[in-house]
Specification:
Helix content of chain B: under 10%
Radius of gyration of chain A: 14 Å
Largest interface: A-B, 23 and 27 residues
Number of helices of chain A: 0
Oligomer: heterodimer
Number of helices of chain B: 0
Largest sheet of chain A: 6 strands, mixed
Distance between the termini of chain B: 35 Å
C-alpha cells in the first residue's frame, strides 16, 4: 500500500527565513508526485508534479525536488501570504490507479 | 469556466438522516473524483468516475455511500443513515484523462457536520 509521510507537522518561520518541507514516500511504482497548497476551509490548490528522481520545478518562492524516496519543498524568503498547509501526494503507476495518496501535510505559518 | 463547484458548502444534519452533495466539474474534464478529509489529515480517496462509469471505489466507501455521475457531467454523493464519524470535508476534483501533469483541480468542498 502506498504511504506518504510529511515532516514537520507544523513550521513557524519569520518572513524571509528560508526552510524546507519533507515528503517521504513508499510506492510500488511512481507515476507522479504532487505538491498542493491548502488554505483553511478551501480545497487543495495544485502547485507541482514531479515524475522522476533528479527533477526540479520552481514557482515564485517555491522549489520542489524529487529523489527515489523523498521530495522536498524549499521555500525561499517566505512571506506571510505563503502561510498554508502544504500537502504531498503520490500517484501509483499502472492499472486504474488514478487516485492520489496524500500525506497529512505541513502547516506553515510565516510571521512578520 | 469557474473551476470545480460543490454544493452545498456546509451541511449540518442529524444522525440517521440522509444527505446528498453535488459536484460540477470543469466542463472538459472527463474524470471526476471524490475525497474525504478530516481535521488535520490529508484527503482520502473515495471513488472516481471516467465519464459516467464508476471505475474505482475505496474500501472506505461503505454501503451507506453511493455516488453517481449520470451523464458524465455533474456528480452526486449520497450518504444514507449518517453517523457522527461521517463528519468531514467532502472534496470533489476533476481532471483530463490525458496526463497533463497538472494533477487534479479540487473544489472548495462540502463540510458535513453530523450532530
Amino acid at each position: 500500500e502506498d504511504q506518504v509521510t510529511q515532516s514537520p507537522e507544523a513550521l513557524r518561520l519569520q518572513e524571509g527565513e528560508s526552510s524546507s518541507l519533507n515528503c517521504s514516500y513508499t510506492v510500488s511504482g511512481l507515476r507522479g508526485l504532487f505538491w498542493y497548497r491548502q488554505d483553511p476551509g478551501k480545497g487543495p490548490e495544485f502547485l507541482f508534479t514531479l515524475y522522476s528522481a533528479g527533477e526540479e520545478k520552481e514557482k515564485e518562492r517555491l522549489k520542489a525536488t524529487l529523489t527515489k524516496k523523498e521530495s522536498f519543498l524549499h521555500i525561499t524568503a517566505p512571506k506571510p501570504e505563503d502561510s498554508a498547509t502544504y500537502l504531498c501526494a503520490v500517484q501509483e503507476r499502472g492499472g486504474t490507479a488514478s487516485k492520489l495518496t496524500f500525506g497529512t501535510g505541513t502547516r506553515l505559518q510565516v510571521t512578520l | 469556466d469557474t473551476g470545480v463547484s460543490q454544493d452545498p458548502r456546509h451541511k449540518i444534519t442529524k444522525r440517521g438522516q440522509n444527505v446528498t452533495f453535488r459536484c460540477d466539474p470543469i466542463s472538459e474534464h472527463n474524470r471526476l473524483y471524490w475525497y474525504r478529509q478530516t481535521l488535520g489529515q490529508g484527503p482520502e480517496f473515495l471513488t472516481y468516475f471516467q465519464n459516467e462509469a464508476q471505475l474505482e471505489k475505496s474500501r472506505l466507501l461503505s454501503d451507506r455511500f453511493s455516488a453517481e455521475r449520470p451523464k458524465g457531467s455533474f456528480s452526486t454523493l449520497e450518504i444514507q443513515r449518517t453517523e457522527q464519524g461521517d463528519s468531514a470535508m467532502y472534496l470533489c476534483a476533476s481532471s483530463l484523462q490525458t496526463d497533463t501533469g497538472y494533477g487534479y483541480t479540487f473544489g472548495s468542498g462540502t463540510r458535513l457536520t453530523v450532530v
